[in-house]
Amino acid sequence: METLVERTEASPQAHERTKVILLTLARHWSVQDGCERLGVGRTRFQDLRRRMLSGAARALEEGAAGRPRRLDDREPPQMRALRRRIAELEGELRRSETELDIARSDAGRAVQRRLATKAVR
Length: 121
Fold this sequence. Notes:
By secondary structure, this protein is an all-alpha fold. It has two domains: about 1-60; about 75-120. The chain has six helices and no strands. The protein has helices spanning about 1-5, 10-25, 30-40, 40-60, 70-75, 75-120. The radius of gyration is 31 Å and the shape is elongated.
């Protein structure tokens, strides 16, 4: 059981709480043992246990069968077209900014060369 709990994505504290609560539910430990292990009172322990079981039950609710629909499927065609156009324009903007940066750096080097040539004369 411990390795199954540790494979879940959670903090070490959440892993420990889960293991202790499962051990009390399986009656391997008493609630008092669980309280002592976690360093909490009985009311806090029962609150943690209730929250854990509620979360587990919610996670196991029946959902719609099959793969969830993509968000694009619910958008009107005009909205999809606008999103595509925005992506195209953003790409063009990035390319233009890059070209401008290159031009500026080339111009900067040319000016520096001219100034260096004038200083030598």
